[in-house]
Amino acid sequence: MRRSVLTVLIAVIVWPKCVLTYGQTITPSELRALTERIPPRLNRARTGTQFVEYVSKMDPQQREQAILAEILQGNLPSFLRKLIPVKLEHLDHGKALRATVFVMPDYLAIGSDKDFLRIPMNLCTATAILARFGFVLPTRKIVDAIYNQSSYHFDPQPMPPGPQMRSTEYYRIHNEMIELQSRVRGIPVGELVSGDKKDVVVTNLLANKPDRIAIYGWHRATGNPIQPLSTVHGARYADYSHGIRLVSEVAMLNGELRSIYEILQDSSLAKVLSDEGPIPGVRQPTAPANRLFTSLADSIPVR
C-alpha cells in the first residue's frame, strides 16, 4: 500500500480550454464537476495500511459498513478524482455513434496517494457510493474499452481459491502484489490502468437475478478476460479479485453531454455503450447527483 508519490499524468490531451474527446470538447471545469460530490479527504483520514489494521478483526458485514463510511467521508486518493475520457463507438447502417465516458483511472481505493488499498466491496455498498457520488458501474463493453485504451496493463495475479478469498488479509496481500508490479514496471498513479482486478458490472442478466452481483474482466496480456460475464455470486458477495471502477453518470454523445442512464435505456443509442443493447435495469437516482444535469439541462435530458 505504501508507495512514493509520482507525477500524476492524465491520459488525455489537455489544452488550456478543453479536453479533446472524439473531436468533442468538455471544459476542465466541467470535467472537475463530475467529481464534485466526493468530499475532500481529511488530513486525519486513515491510510490504506491503517484501514487494514482497523478492519482486521471485523466480520464481513462490519467491514462493509466501515468501507462505506470511509469512502462517503472522502477517504480516497486524490488521483482517483481526476477522471479519464474513454472513447466508444458503434456503427448502425452507416451511421456512427461516438461516445466518451469519464472513468476513474484505477479501482476504488481507501487511503492517500502514498498509501492506499484497492478495496473490494459487495454490490450493496458499491450502489450506495455510486448513488451518492453520481457514478455508475461499467458495462462489459466499457470494461473492454478501458482495457484497450489503458496506458498500462497489469498482469493478472490470481491467488489460491477458498474461503480466505474474502478475508481482509487476502485484500491486503493482493493489493501489495499489485503495488510490487507497479513499482517494478514504473507505473505511475493517475494513469489509466487495467488488469489488476475483475470489474463489477451492469448487465441485463441481473434483470431476472436482482439478488446477484455481476462480474467480468481481469484481462490477460492477450486481451482475453479471465472472468467471463457471470452472476454466480449473491449481491452481498465480495472477494479479493473484485474491483469497483466508477464511471460518471455524465457522458459525451456525438458532441453533447448526456445522461448515461438515458443512453443505456434508449434502443437507438445503447449499443454505443453496451454490447447487450439497452439495459433498462440501470436506473437514475430520483435526484441527479451532478450539477451538470441542471446547469446543462438542455443538452442532458433527465427522466
Keywords:
303 residues, alpha+beta, 4-stranded antiparallel β-sheet, 4-stranded mixed β-sheet, 8 helices, disordered C terminus
Spatial shape: globular
The tally of strands reads 16
Structural class: alpha+beta
Q: How do the strands line up in the largest sheet?
A: 3-4-15-16
Radius of gyration: 18 Å
Helix content: 25-40%
What percent of residues are in strands? 15-25%
Main sheet characteristics: 4 strands, antiparallel
Average of the residue pLDDT scores: 89
Uncertain residue ranges: 4-17, 293-303
Helices, by number, come to: 8
- End-to-end separation in angstroms reads 41 Å
List the domain count as a whole number. Answer: 1
Order of helices and strands: EEHHHEEEEHEHEHEEEEEEEEHH
Can you offer a commentary on this structure?
With about 300 residues, the chain is an alpha+beta fold. It has one domain. Helices cover about 25% and strands about 25% of the residues. The chain is built from 8 helices and 16 strands. Helix 3 (about 60-70) runs parallel beside helix 4 (about 125-135). The longest helix is centred in the middle third of the chain and has 18 residues, at about 170-185. It is globular.
